[in-house]
Amino acid sequence: MNHSSIIFSGPNALKCELVPYLIELGIDRVFMILDKILLEIHADTLYPLMDLLPKEHILLIEAGEEYKHLDQCQKVWRFFTESKVNRNDVVVNVGGGVLTDLGGFCASIYKRGISTINVPTTLMGMVDAAIGGKTAVDYLGVKNLLGAFHLPIAVCGDSSFLSTLTQKELLSGFGEIVKHSLLVGGDMWQRVIQFDPLYSDSEEWQYFVDLSMKYKEAVVKEDLYDNGLRKCLNLGHTIGHALESYFINSKSSFGTDRDLVSHGEAVIAGLIAELYMSNQLLGFPSDILHQLIYLAKENYAPLLFTCKEYDPLLKLMKQDKKNISKAVSYVGMRSLGEPVLLEVDDEELKNGLDFYREMLC
Ligand SMILES: NC(=O)c1ccc[n+]([C@@H]2O[C@H](COP(=O)([O-])OP(=O)(O)OC[C@H]3O[C@@H](n4cnc5c(N)ncnc54)[C@H](O)[C@@H]3O)[C@@H](O)[C@H]2O)c1
């Protein structure tokens, strides 16, 4: 079975690569779900695509986490039904991670699955969410509870969309790029530690978008269903996810706005704590760990927490669906580009959290 997606990537990839591909497919087969907001802020970039499709083939919806639910899916399924979309047709999802997750999920269910193409418009979407076929919506307050694996036939990473993102959104996506750079190593790591995410233009971002998309795609091609190699993409996420969920749901003893913590910020904190554990357990090089700490101090505010909060954090890590036994599973690293799957105990996790606080807070 072919577990791969075509990757179109470049500053004008939508116009120069995706549009010719769709013309080849046959335009009457193509439908589009588009985040409403993009019509206002990226009309020029979208024009070659919008101009191609009949108006009635385009559904505009609101996107953002508060819309990632079944009511929004109903709108999409109604659109598919009323537009008589059939199994030979292709749906192009254009938007951030919420839209590509939701559009992909709707397509995976409708008539037992129709083809999708993702056009991510946020950095998080380009380097992570739009690739790899994990689709989902939130249900009963639980994030991504309903979902399916449904690989897009193509993904188009066009960095022209990045110019309108907030600093917070750029830094969130950058957290995943830093993770990929550790997993890829070599030149990508050298470039990431010299990169300034807040003063770079779309073309400078394109290098990281390209490499991240191709790296994730290659991993997914080997292990779509997350049984082996794909687990290495969880680097930094054992502690990162716990910090993200804990901060979103708890009040700070420091009076700061905890619920504003982004996924990428939490991943950066998780990477520091987990790579310190790798340094202790597997001899991960200290100089690379300190390069990562420098990058974090230059770009991210520290996440403030006390050791009194370790127990609820550990509880969250133990609930992680990646665990296979009662112990906490995590992705360790021997060196750049050398991930290893390990199980760790409470003491080791607390040492990682201690180290993060000593270095960053
Ligand atoms: N499927 C996966 O493997 C995977 C991986 C990572 C994240 N995700 C999911 O992705 C979602 C987060 O994605 P996200 O960070 O892209 O957030 P998002 O999709 O919520 O988008 C953030 C906001 O940016 C707006 N937006 C989109 N493109 C824009 C642009 N170019 N300029 C300005 N604003 C723009 C959106 O309307 C939204 O309000 C989460 O629901 C998460 O679960 C999925």
Topology:
Layout: E1 6-9, H1 13-25, E2 30-35, H2 36-41, H3 43-50, E3 58-61, H4 70-82, E4 90-95, H5 97-109, E5 115-120, H6 123-129, E6 134-139, E7 142-149, E8 154-157, H7 167-184, H8 186-194, H9 202-222, H10 237-249, H11 263-282, H12 286-299, H13 310-318, E9 328-333, E10 339-344, H14 346-360
Parallel strand pairs: 1-8, 2-3, 2-4, 4-5, 5-8
Antiparallel strand pairs: 6-7, 9-10
Keywords: Cobalt, Lyase, Metal-binding, NAD, Nucleotide-binding, Zinc
Function: Catalyzes the conversion of 3-deoxy-D-arabino-heptulosonate 7-phosphate (DAHP) to dehydroquinate (DHQ).
Cofactor: NAD(+); Co(2+)
Structural commentary:
With 361 residues, this protein is of the alpha/beta class. Helix content is 50%, strand content 16%. It has 14 helices and 10 strands. It has helices at residues 13-25, 36-41, 43-50, 70-82, 97-109, 123-129, 167-184, 186-194, 202-222, 237-249, 263-282, 286-299, 310-318, 346-360; strands at 6-9, 30-35, 58-61, 90-95, 115-120, 134-139, 142-149, 154-157, 328-333, 339-344. Strand 9 and strand 10 form a beta hairpin. The protein starts with 5 loop residues before the first strand and ends with a helix. The mean pLDDT is 95. It binds nicotinamide-adenine-dinucleotide (NAD). Nicotinamide-adenine-dinucleotide binds next to helix 2, helix 5 and helix 6. Residues 60-170 form the 3-dehydroquinate synthase N-terminal domain. Its EC number is 4.2.3.4. One of its GO terms (molecular function) is 3-dehydroquinate synthase activity. Catalyzes the conversion of 3-deoxy-D-arabino-heptulosonate 7-phosphate (DAHP) to dehydroquinate (DHQ).
